[in-house]
Design goal:
By secondary structure, this protein is an alpha+beta fold. The protein has 2 domains: 247 residues, 6 Propeller (Neuraminidase), CATH 2.120.10; 132 residues, TATA-Binding Protein. Helices cover 18% and strands 28% of the residues. The chain is built from 9 helices and 24 strands. A hairpin with a 4-residue loop joins strand 22 and strand 23.
């Protein structure tokens, strides 16, 4: 799902494994079994900017080592003989994270901020609220914060401002009970002192935004925010507009107000879609030498023989259209099918529990209604279940 490339404003969706050496992955003699057991658990700072640097976390971060492989290094001989597999029941400190930001300052220091490890449904899922600083001389320091000072944050941006004197941390996915529809989370990190403070902004905010791009203007006076997702009463929706935050006043300006038409098609029973399963079945059929098992349990899951004809025509509306080839350089493009209708781009995005259709411009109402009915009817055949259309924003 995610790219390891850094984005403007410091968002990193995965680690920079290309820069990790075999030596980095080795714990070294200073990381003893006893020390590893002491520091393997993910814990938060007890005071602001608490220096929590230790040999175990240094190794895990430098080597981008995940908790499972770290534990494998220090399993007892008896556990290995018995082939016991360790499944953590609590969060353990991870050097490899998703949604972590990377911000490089002019003096060569690199600030890695927060991020998450594992999926939300796993018992060891954890969203971090720490700051890791790499210096030019190779020094590495890890600083923790209480949740009351710095909320656990992931898929944010982190932009150096005011001559690198501070970093503005915008956005968050966060834990469900800490999200707030309509508000944009902003923290300021003072780079000389490492003091962290939540700041409030004025103007028309993007809302609870995440996974976005943030770019500092040429004169350093504002941060341009675009892309990503925004939390709404309908769940997370694509952010289709551009926003600017003034660095001095912390005031938001909405730069665009795109009148795009969007709707979601989902199963009436609320179950997730099976489009990925269909895609894998089709791939296995078309490329038998790839080694994928052509036999699956899709029929059992949907209660009928899969309707490949309906699946193949799912993104082919009953109006004249032109398909758009997928971009192999876009890591998220596998989830989206694109076409144009009368010069207007239309995107079908598989969001797992619903299919989102985005019309990036004006089309006659009759055409849009025809598209919605077409997707609903075909998806009902694909899923062997009744499906419904839900219009987003003003419909």
């Amino acid at each position: 799902m995610l790219s390891g490339e850094p984005r403007s404003g410091g968002l990193v969706l995965a680690d920079d494994e290309d820069e990790v050496t075999d030596e980095d992955r080795e714990p070294g003699p200073e990381v003893t079994s006893k020390l590893f057991r002491r520091w393997q658990k993910a814990v938060r700072g007890r005071s602001p900017a608490e220096d929590m640097t230790n040999p175990v976390w240094r190794w895990l971060f430098r080597g981008r080592v995940d908790p499972y492989h770290a534990n494998e290094r220090f399993r007892s001989r008896l556990q290995k003989m018995l082939r016991r597999v360790d499944f953590p029941s609590e969060p353990r400190w991870a050097g490899c994270r998703m949604g972590q930001s990377r911000t490089e300052l002019a003096d060569g220091r690199v600030f890695w901020i927060a991020g998450e490890h594992e999926d939300f449904y796993d018992p060891d899922f954890f969203i971090y609220n720490d700051v890791i600083i790499e210096s030019l001389d190779g020094d590495l320091r890890i600083f923790g914060y209480p949740e009351s000072v710095f909320r656990p944050t992931d898929f944010h941006s982190a932009t150096a401002v005011n001559g690198d004197q501070s970093i503005l941390i915008l956005g968050n996915v966060g834990y469900p009970d800490q999200r707030e529809v309509g508000r944009t989370q902003i923290f300021r990190l003072d780079t000389p002192t490492l003091a962290m403070s939540e700041v409030h902004s004025t103007g028309q905010q993007p809302g609870w935004i995440s996974d976005h791009q943030a770019t500092l203007s040429d004169d350093g006076s504002s941060i341009l925010v675009r892309g990503g997702k925004v939390l709404s009463d309908d769940g997370f929706l694509e952010n289709i507009d551009d926003w600017a935050l003034s660095v001095a006043e912390l005031h938001w300006d909405r730069l665009t107000k795109r009148q795009w038409i969007r709707f979601q098609v989902a199963r009436h029973d609320g179950s997730g879609l099976h489009l990925w399963n269909y895609d894998m079945r089709k791939f296995a059929s078309e490329y038998p030498r790839a080694g994928f098992d052509a036999e699956d349990d899709l029929a059992e899951q949907i209660g009928a023989e899969p309707n490949m004809e309906a699946y193949d025509s799912l993104y082919q509306p009953q109006v004249p259209y032109t398909p758009i080839e997928a971009d192999p350089k876009d890591d998220d493009d596998w989830r989206t099918k694109k076409i144009t209708i009368d010069g207007v781009r239309v995107r079908y995005t598989d969001d797992m529990d619903h299919l989102t259709v985005t019309v990036e411009g004006d089309l006659p109402q009759a055409v849009v209604d025809s598209m919605a009915k077409d997707v609903r009817d075909k998806l009902s055949l694909v899923e062997n279940a009744d499906c419904r259309v839900k219009w987003i924003e003003g419909r």
